[in-house]
Each structure stands twice: as C-alpha cells, then as structure tokens.
Automatic annotation (TrEMBL):
The keyword Transferase does not apply. Coiled coil: none annotated. Residues 101-124 have a biased composition (Basic and acidic residues). Signal peptide: none annotated. One of its GO terms (molecular function) is protein heterodimerization activity. The keyword Coiled coil applies. PANTHER family: DNA POLYMERASE EPSILON SUBUNIT 3. This is DNA polymerase epsilon subunit 3. Residues 125-150 have a biased composition (Acidic residues). The gene is POLE3. Keywords: Acetylation, Coiled coil, DNA-binding, Nucleus, Phosphoprotein. It is found in: Nucleus.
Amino acid sequence: MAERPEDLNLPNAVITRIIKEALPDGVNISKEARSAISRAASVFVLYATSCANNFAMKGKRKTLNAGDVLSAMEEMEFQRFTGPLKESLEAYRREQKGKRGASELKKKDKDQKEDSEDPDKNREEEEEEERMEEEEPNEEEEEEEEEVDS
C-alpha cells in the first residue's frame, strides 16, 4: 500500500484541470484551496472504494464492479449522483462496444483482403498441413507395428 499519506492523493494536474472546467472563465483558485479540494477528493475516493469493497466482500468476490460502486454511492447517501453515474457508465460501455466492433471489423476486412490477394496461398498451406498429417503415423499404428514385429 502507500508508504506516506500523500501518496494516496490524486494528481494535482488532474485536480487543477477539473477545477478549471467547473469554474467560470476568469475565476482563480488559490493553491491552498486546490490542495484542500485534492485532499477532499482523495478522501472521497478512498471512502467510496472502501464501501464498494464491502459490497464485493459480501458477494464473496475480490473484484469491485460498477454495481458495487453504485451501491456504495447509495449507502453513502449520494443517491443523486447514481443517475448521472449510470448514464456515464452506459456511455462508456457503448464507446467500448463501438471500439471492439470497429477493431473486429478492421480485422475481418484485413483477413478478407489477405484472402482475396492470394487465395492460392491459403490452399497451398492447407494442402501442406494435410500432407504433413498423412505422413506422420499416429501412435496407434506405431503400437500395432511394434506388436506385429515382436
């Protein structure tokens, strides 16, 4: 685990970017305020993780899942965040599904392109594999030959 309590803090650059996105243009924030928000965010993440871990342990699992986090949010009395969190989770899942689908299509297109470029190559490889299998005597035939020889 962490050697020092500071190791558990979220990265300052990430916190600063989130703060800037949340505040209107022209509003500045002091270094102390940024540090306080960073600590508060870190404590929140650790508490939410601990609560989610309890739900995973009740389910006799070692892996936290989205359901554990949503249940933890409700237990921590942050129900008003579960709706937006579910929406974000669904958007993330759709994005991942789209990426997987796109990569599968690319692979399929590539395979079809390779097949169409040299269809004889695949046939030759298959025929070579069949010849190799025919040439290799199987174990049963070898045992029978040994028994006959004895």
